[in-house]
Fold each of these.
Amino acid sequence: MRDDQDRPPLRVHWLRGRLVEPHGPYAELDVVAETGSTNHDLKQAGSRDRSVLVAEHQTAGRGRAGRRWVAPPRSGLFFSVRLRPEPVPPTRRGWLPLVAGVALATAVGAASGVAASLKWPNDLLLGPRQRKGAGILAEAVGESLVLGIGLNVSLREAELPVPEATSLAIEGATALDRDELLVAVLLELADVERRWRAAHGDVEASGLGERYRALCSTVGMDVRVELPNGAALRGTAVDVDASGRLVVRDGRGERTAVSAGDVGHVRPAQG
Ligand code: BTN
């Protein structure tokens, strides 16, 4: 009972009135009570460009690098967006997950009053301790990309999947209304994705590269990058390149670019 009061369901008609054509930028939006994974569902054939699927609960939520995304029903926002950015050449599409991070950090920061930054590629860090409050999983399906976003809204400390996680409630957000947060994130995402698409994926011409670097707390940091073969790369994160890869300069001055799909974890280097 307590959760029902703390965690009311999303209002699908209200959401459609703000987000779906002709009033909003999306082609369609559905809210389901429960599914395995919204990314999995939207990857199936038939979804149109700019379609959105939101779940109140996921039983098999997927995270990056084969991890899981676990959260109690209605404790956050769990949704996926299918996009067909046809004018953007494949070589530039690696930036879309980072562009989505720009939208997420901008919208959540503005709507909640909580300091928001990005850990490369697109983990949303919240509050003074910079703990993870949201993540993005991008998956390619032919010519389309599915962007899945999980945002912790009302999660309490005892419910956190790992101690390095957090939620908007824990960080003292001024707004915890999931309908309002979802509209804020999806409108910002539509706006930045439209700019990125209009610039044919050129993040410098569209200004999105500059916005990303301003939000990204990883660039400039000493990092330890876990590679798929079990090895680790240590150095200073110095930039994000034209393909969205993190450029790390090691102690000998050699630069290595690592892509999100090839990295288990990027952590601040210790000692
Ligand atoms: C990460 O940080 O590892 C990415 C987490 C992405 C979770 C979201 S929740 C909605 C969508 N559906 C999924 O199965 N995963 C993404």
Amino acid sequence: MTLTPVEPLPEHEVRVRAPGKINLSLRVGAREADGYHPLTTVFQAVSVFEEVVATPSDERTLTVSGAQADLVPTDSSNLALQAVEALARRTGVDEGVHLHLDKGVPVAGGMAGGSADAAAALVACDALWHTGLSRPELLEIAAEVGADVSFILMGHTAVGQGRGHLLTPALTRGEFYWAFAVQDRGLSTSACYQAFDELHGGEPGAPDPELDVPLMQALRAGDARALGAALHNDLQLASLELDPHLAEPLAVAEDSGALGVIVSGSGPTVAALARSRQHALALAAAFTASGVADRVLTASAPVAGARVLSSD
Ligand code: ATP
């Protein structure tokens, strides 16, 4: 009699995908006593994704692959590990996990790649550990980890207030197409806010910035031309001061017929709104041909927030 060798059980793994974001409008109030700036922003999740695979482990560890993986910390400063710790604290779970991050979102590019990893890690460990938290509970933990993490959980398009974590979903119609000029050099979000403070000063305690009504109307109508005209970023001047070369991709996009172009969040990624999917490819080709980007990406938007792709 021959014995059939017993196959080891496949290791349980949960695979989650989370999008990057752009700020269609970013209005920044004066710095408050706690160092934060009140925001009124309109987030949109775009089809540039992080993929996070969670597998059981004795410890809590992390590896990274993808473009610019060498720029991502693998210690406890990584936002994905911070999200895991926050979830474990909240639920009393004592288990370990190994996370593998495959990065598609530019690192330190103003598109919330780290927050996307954190949101994905929360969703992945909630499934792996069977903690079964409700959406509002996950959103609460997300807000603890970082201002943009809540939006990445939610996805689509939303108005963010406070530090960007008080979210209201926005009505939109249709699909918008984007081209991104990505730089290898990152821009520090805190340096950008510091430059903003120096440029604008401002009175602490001033009212929170107002919501862009024409932009919300453009989204509701699915009117890409009106959306392009309404794009706005209060941090753009500060980003340009820190990195004057960013004027180049902005000019290339305008010359190539973009409906609107802005620095994404605190930069240095430049986001150009296209007329169509084809036009987004043409804008990306113009960025490449003129040598104003280290890498280009195209995307459609809005897309869903962090979601389990497979679990077995
Ligand atoms: P935001 O748009 O939210 O300001 P960003 O897109 O500009 O963020 P991130 O890529 O999220 O920037 O990361 C900024 C810095 O945070 C990196 O330079 C890195 O040192 C650190 N960091 C921590 N966790 C991560 C992560 N999971 N992925 C990338 N960077 C991370």
